[in-house]
Design a protein that fits this description.
Blueprint (H helix, E strand, L loop, with lengths): L1 H4 L6 E6 L6 E2 L1 E3 L5 H4 L9 H8 L1 E3 L8 E2 L9 E4 L2 E4 L6 E7 L7 H8 L7 E7 L6 E3 L8
Parallel strand pairs: 3-4, 8-9
Antiparallel strand pairs: 1-8, 2-5, 6-7, 9-10
Length: 147
């Protein structure tokens, strides 16, 4: 997924400690569900539960991602809007535990530590690399690879 979502290994992934009940497993399907599949005639009639179900659906070609999704009330405390984007503030139920940086990142480890501030000591920060034998991304154990 690094090629899709992390600007060809220049970005980063942040791992969070969150309650498992906060996430829903994505349902991968071959055919996009229709209004008839939902038992409705117009989208204005869709229920909140049906809407949540629709947002958990993704094309089967993406099954390898093994994705989970979460739904956050954008009007609740701890959610900040900046422009068109919303951000969940860190709290006891939403804390970063790791920062995985792509091998082509322009960032220095010290920049990430500074950005994390007082929680940096509790976060595992490491660079990734392609595995030498398999088609997967693994931890880079050579600290000298950081810029």
């Amino acid at each position: 997924m690094w090629a899709h979502y992390a600007d060809s290994y220049k970005g980063m992934a942040i791992g969070f400690e969150v309650p498992s009940k906060a996430f829903y497993k994505v349902n991968y399907v071959k055919k996009r569900p229709t209004k008839a599949d939902l038992g409705i005639t117009k989208y204005e009639d869709i229920s909140i539960e049906q809407m949540k179900e629709m947002t958990r659906v993704k094309a089967s070609g993406w099954r390898y991602e093994q994705e989970y999704r979460s739904f956050i009330n954008l009007g609740q405390n701890g959610v900040v809007k900046e422009g068109d984007n919303y951000f969940q503030l860190m709290n006891d139920n939403f804390m970063p535990i790791e920062v995985i940086v792509g091998p082509r990142t322009p960032l220095k480890k010290s920049q990430i530590v500074k950005a994390l501030g007082p929680i940096a000591g509790d976060v595992d920060i490491f660079m990734s690399r392609g595995d030498f034998a398999d088609f997967k991304v693994v931890r880079q154990n050579q600290d000298s690879m950081w810029r």
